Amino acid sequence: MTLFPVILIISSLFSSPDEILVFGTRIRDDSTRRETSLFKSEKKTLRAAESGYSLPDLLEDTPSAKIFSAGGEGQFSFLRIRGSQPQHVKWYIDGVTVNSGMSGTMNAGLFPTLTFSRVEVFRGITPFSLGSPSISGGVNLLNDSIRTEKLTVSTSLGSYSSWRWGLVYQKPGKIPIKAAMQYFTSLGNFRYYDNNGTELNTEDDSIHDRKNNKASTLSMLFNIPLNLNGVSLKTTVLYIRNESGLPGPVTMEALHTYYSSNRINLINTLKTGSSKNWITGSISAEYLGEKYTDPFDETGVGAQNTKNDYYSVRTGINFNHRGKSFYSGLYLGQLFETVTPVNSLLMDLEKSHIRNTIYSGALLRKYLGKVTAQLRMDAFVSSNDSSEISESSIGGGLNLSWKIKKNTVLKGNIIRAFRQPVFMELYTNIGALKGNENLKSENGWTMDAGISSKLPVLSGKIESAVFYQKMNNLIVFVPNSQFIAVSENIGKSVIYGFEGMLNLLLPGKISLKTGLMAGRTENITPDAYNYGKSLPGRPAYSFDIKIERKIIFDLWRILPSVSVNQTSGAYFDGDERRPVPLRRYYNANIHVETPWKGVSMSLLVKNIENRISETLERLPVTPSGRYLYTQGRGDWLGYPVPGRTFFFTVTVNQ
User: Whose CA is closest to 246, among 287, 205, 290, 194?
Assistant: First the structure.
């Protein structure tokens, strides 16, 4: 069932006593950094944590990346890259896939910023070293090598009775170790605008406190990297306990409904070989126990006490060979997973489901002077409960990069990727979401092309790209009643657009970072009633700008910054009848590094404007005139977002 024993046997064939590879540099250079066609952003997490930023805050400061939240700090937060589905974004820890086969995506709010060292964000194509390609991009959470002993303690106090504290300790040695813990809790009961469900009548509109919006998350991580006679071994254990109330959209109150989950990830990685031939391997396991409770049927779908126990084991091995003018790679992977759903509805009987999937891929990279060309192939074969072959697919693509100047690269990618439906989409019954066992895998083409350049002045960097994605068998949850949505293959969709970023270091120690995206999503399913209409919740335009200045006063370093995030052109629905108004958020941060060694303080303010309502227009315009109404400002699902929010953070590094 596992490929990992093969890794240990074959590693001896690649080992060489005369030629030892420094894996922290060489393998990373040949697997990720040499793929110069990738559109990628890299961020340091410690400074972000010291400034009071959560991981969703950090990720949203990336061109074409947008976070969608179910209502404030600590609630469900999902990432979309280039207008994609959240399930189309792959998540990794130290290069190992951690997308749960239960939900298909990850709640970005669960991962503590302080725990990891760096975050890589891949926009569009993911590197070959990370396994089968994603449809729209990926996020790689990384733990760097442990070189010095260090202790970091951080605490934040915020609006709505929010409190976050974290601790990270690392120590080098024969058995280096990194241990991290973070806890977050919030009542989350911010004020919101309620139109009482009567759009035409403004007299009964009012402002209420959000109910049942509490959230708490406890996360613990242990990371042990070892180097034994040229063999690099790393073990990572991640535990996350999460509980949150489910208040529902503004038109619904669910005061006693909540969701809780326990997640354990065990990840082992291995690297060994020489500078010409090396292998990397991994074996990981996941347990996810989640519970949804609606004892008084507040959501109107039948009294619920639903529980899902999900287990998976994932193995992978990469064979690598580097010649004078080329690089070749081969990967094999296996994912075995099972789920047991249990709930109190008589129509849904308890039944366990299993699935076994084999992944494979090959890559050939050729260096032709200033041009690098890559050709890759990918495939999977999946078997279901009865051990019959249930599905298979073949993908692959071409990646090109041309170094036209010393610091300027032209890039282009085209790849066919696929995604299997996950267990939540197939089988589960979680509140208003229902599964569908007849789903087919999504597949489609992802393409992008652009330029990346380091500017000779102002320490600048500029990057721009056009992108296009065509999907078949797109899976979405389609409402089939007032309360219930069922997963369906809606057919075909396309996403296309432009993204760009510009970073500059201006005179006066001022840094400027900007990002923008202009795009369009369309449902192109033949004979669909909303053919040619936008997929809901995808902004057509987004713009981000952040300005930060460094001020040195005696032994104090003060870094004030302001940022603006703006989106427009989205629709609440798939018929383009309810356009989302332009939204602009102003944020500010003051980060202070004190004369006391390792002590810093930050004040973060989000949504300075404090706007909690917005005016909407229902389309098309009727003969009697425009139809305008006011509702609470919320995400595309109707969940309200908080008004002005403060976070004060103190961090000590020793």
Answer: 290
The DSSP code for 422 is: P
**Structure token digits, residue 216:** 């708490």
In SS3 terms, 260-289 reads as EEEEEEEEEEEEEECCCEEEEEEEEEEEEE
The helix/strand/coil state of 559 is strand
Q: Which residue type, as a one-letter code, is found at position 7? A: I
Q: Is pLDDT above 90 for 544?
A: yes
Say how far apart CA 428 and CA 572 lie, in whole Å.
25
Cα 422 to Cα 399: distance, rounded to the nearest angstrom: 29
Q: Any idea what DSSP says for residue 482? A: S
Q: What is the pTM of this model?
A: 0.89
Asked whether residue 265 carries a pLDDT value surpassing 70, the answer given is: yes
CA atoms within 13 A on the CB side of 641: 20
**Cα dihedral across residues 120, 121, 125, 126: positive or negative:** positive
Model confidence band, residue 301 (pLDDT cutoffs 50, 70, 90): low
CB-based burial, 307-331: b 16+ in 10 Å, e otherwise: bbbbbbbbbbbbbbebeeeebebbb
pLDDT for residue 230: 80
DSSP string, 498-557: EEEEEEEEETTTEEEEEEEEEEEEEE--TT-TTTTPPPTT--SEEEEEEEEE-EEETTEE
Q: Residue 38: enclosing H or E segment and its boundaries? A: none
* Beta-bridge partner residues of 135: none
φ, ψ for residue 46 (rounded to 5)? -65, -50
The SS3 of residue 6 is helix
d(Cα 139, Cα 160) in Å, to the nearest integer? Answer: 29
pLDDT digit string (tens) for 377-403? 999 998 887 666 678 888 899 999 999
For the purposes of burial, counting CB atoms within 10 Å of the CB of 523, is it exposed (0-12), middle (13-18) or buried (19 or more)?
buried
Poorest-pLDDT segment among 175-189, 341-355, 548-562: 341-355
Pull the structure tokens for residue 11. 């590693």
3-class secondary structure, 116: coil
Please write the tens of the pLDDT for every residue from 103-134: 778 888 888 888 888 999 999 889 988 888 88
Residue 502 has pLDDT above 80, yes or no: yes
Place of tokens 């242990």: 222
Q: Using an 8 Å Cβ cutoff, are 574 and 536 in contact?
A: yes
- As a whole number of Å, the CA-based R_g of the chain is 25
The CA distance from 442 to 448, in Å, is 19
